[in-house]
Amino acid sequence: MNQKVELDRGLVVASHGRHVVVETPEGRRLICHPRGKKNQAVVGDRVLWLPSGDEGSIERVEERRNLFYRQDEIRTKSFAANLDQVLILIAAEPEFSESQLARALIAAEAERIRPLIVLNKSDLAEPFARAWSRLAPYRRMGYTVLPLSLKGAEGQDAGLAALHTELKGRATLVLGPSGAGKSTLVNRLVPGAQAQTGEISTALNSGKHTTTSTSWYWMDGARSSALVDSPGFQEFGLRHIEAAQLASLMPDLRAHAGDCRFYNCSHLHEPGCGVMTAVDEQVDGTGISPSRYRIYSELHAELSQAPRY
């Protein structure tokens, strides 16, 4: 008679290639290897694993609440699973890409993950004022947009207290282009982040690849608030989203799509289109900003040409 093997539960807190680091409920961390391709786990996954010496093997990945990822023509890149929100960090200078911001927001909407937009470098008065104005459509859509300055000495960061409130009790993925201040932000929010990254890197014997991995950091001793640091990216592909689905994932377009004459309106050329009618040239208008409509049109063309996987 075969004896039933008791599996341990754990949380994936780091990944590099096919190796992952799993944290036990008691806080112990160890390297685990997936058993077969079906058990490929990502940071944030809850897993069932089997001890094997001082390491382990992942026997099952438990059902996910969500998975935040991007997909281009070549591959799919998963950031993390079971998230409460995605913090998109942009800066007043260098000027941020609204297209990249929109893409990240659409990916979050598709997985029903709350987005949080943070604009860094509020100490640069003129560039910040311009950037804050560009974000007016996003505030009107109901997104939380916070100002931040990481220039001051530690403990003197403008806006950090308000950000802490938004992060409390949540698992948050931090995204951001180079120059936005993502590494500085992570180290301010989790003072021991660099040390933890070094420990994980040593464990995986992948020190030179540390920046390409994703890591989960607890912000408090009670392990109720977490920050997930992700690798930077140049492009954010949305090939996993269908063109016809796009408007429903953009809140400003979605608000007017019900006014269209045709139920299957593409919002590009049809008569009686509620979306096109709502495009508002006024900077502080209540409709859809021209830049947002242009992003929609460009994305719709891109996704219409994309082969479905």
- Total domain count: 3
CATH superfamily of the largest domain: P-loop containing nucleotide triphosphate hydrolases
Please give the order of strands in the largest beta sheet.
Answer: 1-2-3-5-4
Head-to-tail CA distance between termini? 44 Å
**CATH topology-level fold name of the largest domain:** Rossmann fold
What are the low-pLDDT stretches, counting only 5+ consecutive residues below 50?
206-211
Mean pLDDT over the residues: 88
What is the strand tally? 13
CATH structural architecture of the largest domain: 3-Layer(aba) Sandwich
Helix and strand element order: EEEEEEEEHEHHEHEHHEEHHH
Strand content is: 15-25%
Which value, in Å, is the CA radius of gyration?
A: 21 Å
Percent helix, as a range, is 25-40%
Overall geometric form: globular
Number of helices: 9
Structural class: alpha/beta
Name the CATH class of the largest domain.
Answer: Alpha Beta
Largest sheet: 5 strands, mixed, barrel
Describe the overall structure:
The chain is an alpha/beta fold. The protein has three domains: 8-61, Nucleic acid-binding proteins (OB fold (Dihydrolipoamide Acetyltransferase, E2P), Beta Barrel), CATH 2.40.50; 67-229, Rossmann fold; 243-305, Ribonucleotide Reductase Protein R1, domain 1. Helices cover 27% and strands 25% of the residues. It has helices at residues 98-110, 125-134, 136-140, 160-167, 182-189, 193-204, 251-257, 274-278, 290-305, and strands spanning 8-16, 19-23, 29-34, 46-52, 55-61, 67-71, 76-81, 85-91, 114-120, 144-147, 171-175, 214-218, 226-229. It has a five-stranded mixed β-barrel. 34% of the residues are buried.
